[in-house]
Amino acid sequence: MIEIENLSKRYGDKVAVDDLSFTVAPGKVTGFLGPNGAGKSTTMRMVLGLDRPTAGRALVAGRPYAEHSRPLMKVGALLDAKGVNGARTAYHHLLALAAANGIPASRVHEVLDMTGLSSVARKRTKGFSLGMGQRLGIAAALLGKPEIVVLDEPVNGLDPEGVVWVRELMKQLAADGCTVLVSSHLMNEMAVTADHLVIIAKGRLLVDSAMSDFIVQHSRHSVLTRVADPEALREALDAEGIRSERLSDGRIEALEVGVEQVGKIAHARQIAVYEMAAQTASLEEAFMQLTSQQTEYRATLEVQR
Ligand SMILES: Nc1ncnc2c1ncn2[C@@H]1O[C@H](COP(=O)(O)OP(=O)(O)OP(=O)(O)O)[C@@H](O)[C@H]1O
């Protein structure tokens, strides 16, 4: 378990993490989302004892990271995949890490297999692609068979096959009882990976909920119609127990329903339909809407005419 309690981090005047509290439970993948600069990496660094909190605390398996005598066997982490000595081979990089942490060499072969790196294990890591570097970082994170795994943007640079592999790996770790915290700024990726969702923006907590609850609340299906008699259609929908809204341009938005149903209802009441379209608000849109006021770096698109 990871417990984050009233955690704050300031860099000079800059508040990177602001009184953040949440718990990451075992047996689940917890997605940690936020726009660029939200404070995800800073939070993860504090969880891993790499940054000192200005206030509050982060506990892993009941105590601060630094107080664990063999932390690699409690917590595995992928933070910055580039922090590897490029002159070493993948095998020697992992072997050195294993030796320093009292982990048998046989485990190095296991993690190389698990991450699909066995065939390049004897190659120097400086020639590795971004995706191979990510795999090596994940191999290092898994070396100590940790009960807690913290991954910062693990699918960054991976090809589609690699993305699916990371997704399945995280699910398997959670199924084996691990606590898995994974950061991302891609809502759709998290929707198919994570069981639980924590969203932050500007260092503050915005959402802490089961992923299924978030999906139910935010993936809104509706049908937009333009009809001859909007009020008659609303009455007809209401009679069928379907909620609807009248938009300012006179169109009707029927909520949580499909086009066929709305079409049949209009037909049964002989209401002429001029226009009808299914609408789906994606989770990505919901996430962007939630965080749009909180985003530190936002591009302004100017169209030159
Ligand atoms: N060492 C530092 N010194 C000063 N400011 C920092 C430092 N590290 C992070 N920050 C600032 O803290 C804020 C949070 O940064 P952080 O990297 O934690 O965000 P993030 O959510 O991981 O973003 P991204 O998705 O872009 O990686 C940003 O405004 C960043 O500029």
Automatic annotation (TrEMBL):
<keyword id="KW-0813">Transport</keyword>
<protein>
    <submittedName>
        <fullName>ABC transporter ATP-binding protein</fullName>
    </submittedName>
</protein>
<keyword id="KW-0067">ATP-binding</keyword>
<dbReference type="Pfam" id="PF00005">
    <property type="entry name" value="ABC_tran"/>
</dbReference>
<dbReference type="InterPro" id="IPR027417">
    <property type="entry name" value="P-loop_NTPase"/>
</dbReference>
<feature type="domain" description="ABC transporter">
    <location>
        <begin position="2"/>
        <end position="227"/>
    </location>
</feature>
<comment type="similarity">
    <text>Belongs to the ABC transporter superfamily.</text>
</comment>
<dbReference type="GO" id="GO:0016887">
    <property type="term" value="F:ATP hydrolysis activity"/>
</dbReference>
<dbReference type="InterPro" id="IPR003593">
    <property type="entry name" value="AAA+_ATPase"/>
</dbReference>
<dbReference type="GO" id="GO:0005524">
    <property type="term" value="F:ATP binding"/>
</dbReference>
<keyword id="KW-0547">Nucleotide-binding</keyword>
<dbReference type="InterPro" id="IPR003439">
    <property type="entry name" value="ABC_transporter-like_ATP-bd"/>
</dbReference>
